[in-house]
Specification:
The chain is of the alpha+beta class. Helix content is 41%, strand content 28%. It contains four helices and five strands; from the N terminus they run ααββααβββ.
Length: 143
Amino acid sequence: MGWRDAARVSQQVLENRDSRYPDPYLELLRLGVQHTKEEVVVTLFFAGATVTGAVITLDEWERRTLRELKKHSSDVPRVAAEAMQALDDRAEEQRTARPDTDSPFVHLHDATYRSGRDHFAVRTWRGPITGILGWTVGELTPA
């Protein structure tokens, strides 16, 4: 995505005319990561849980997930990769980027999921944006 495209999408997100984005600032963060490829660690708050990890693009989440699937199956990754390639080809034909702001999910890598006293490390994580109650940049630190 070029700078002009990023600026146009950023403006649409901020205007949020159709209330499409539950949290325009989180959308801008995702768009920034997609455009710059920089790593930003966030902590997301859900009802009864938190998740901390580095924001990644939908494309990066797909690549990492397929890599993990290959460790466990030979056919599932092939079928999934073909379906994802078809989506990418269709986007290319329409000459449109698939911006992360169109995804109803946020994607993280090297994440830690915490609920009560339990916590789990996961390589990739995908969660619904509509479930996020709040968020902050960075990791949680003990008070």
